[in-house]
Amino acid sequence: MTNKNDKHVTTTGAYVFCIANQKGGVGKTTTAINLAAALAALKKDVLLIDLDPQGNATMGSGVDKNNLQANLYEVLLGEVSIQDARVASETGKYDVLPSNRELSGAEIDLVQMEGREARLKRAIDDIRHEYDFILIDCPPTLSLLTLNGLASASGVIIPMQCEYFALEGLSDLVNTIKRVYANINPDLQLIGLLRVMFDARVTLQQQVSAQVETHFGDRVFKTIIPRNVRLAEAPSHGMPGVVYDKSSRGAKAYLEFGNELIRRMKREGLKQAARART
Ligand code: ATP
Ligand code: MG
Asked: Angle at CA 21, nearest 5°, toward 19 and 25?
């Protein structure tokens, strides 16, 4: 585990981004893990928050979800500090706030609590100045957990597959983002849509990809993540694909995505979650 006392302290605080899509199995966790590793490889300080009781982002970062000292669930309940719950991903060179199935209890426990949708944000406020990027891997639901993610973030990254009905599936999420923006979090923005598991040989995927560009314009990232078996193999080795086989097409694409995201943040001057604001 990295010694937090050695960490540099940023003057502005991290960009906090949710990786979200309420559709299951679209590549959220793969994107969260590999973007975290790509940004770390680009010398950024990154925290990956596993907001899914499945614990896939935890395991895929090489952290055993069944053998945790502390986890996100305890942080949300206020039993453990975020500083005590985070651990280092030795393989990914970033920090992880890990989760396991205990987190599924949060949906019920948090309902009774004061400021139930702001629990994660409050925890993040304690450490946001230590990182350049905080990425939140959301579960495949529009639940209270996801709401906590959206309430904490300044932006949302939506991984999507270019399949039939993909655009219709996005409207619920986009509406939820608008509602959170209007009612809870005026900093929330749609950063962009990331086309993942892309197979350029499939005509339908090319057609949907073009439709997505027409509909969302510059909100679509230029980088496209190909379908690549190395990315799918990496989690069973407890490694991000970017580390497991950095010469693979999938790894190169996620590294390029990390670069594109950094360029976009510079260009747009998106407000970082300033420590002073909180
Ligand atoms: P859930 O909704 O259950 O949280 P998810 O949206 O997080 O799922 P992932 O777990 O990232 O989706 O991906 C689903 C499956 O697709 C996994 O088996 C993963 O390894 C595989 N996968 C993701 N991206 C790619 C890719 N670019 N190429 C090949 N396989 C991929
Ligand atoms: Mg997932």
From this structure: 100
Partners of 230 in the beta sheet? none
pLDDT at 81 over 90: yes
pTM of structure: 0.94
Q: How far is CA 24 from the centre of its chain?
A: 15
Q: For ligand 1, say whether the CB of 28 is within 6 Å of any of its atoms.
A: yes
Do 81 and 75 touch, CB atoms closer than 8 A?
yes
56 lines ligand 1 (CB under 6 A): yes
According to CATH, the superfamily of the domain at 4-277 is P-loop containing nucleotide triphosphate hydrolases (3.40.50.300)
Q: Helix, strand, coil proportions of the chain in percent (round to 5)? A: 50, 15, 35
Cβ neighbours, 10 Å, residue 83: 12
pLDDT in tens, 240-252: 999 999 999 999 9
Residue 105 beta carbon below 6 angstroms from any ligand 1 atom? no
Mutate to test the pocket of ligand 1, among 18, 30, 136, 193 (most ligand atoms within 8 A of CB): 30
Pocket of ligand 1 contains residue 228 by CB under 6 Å: yes
**Both ends of the chain: CA-CA distance in Å?**
28
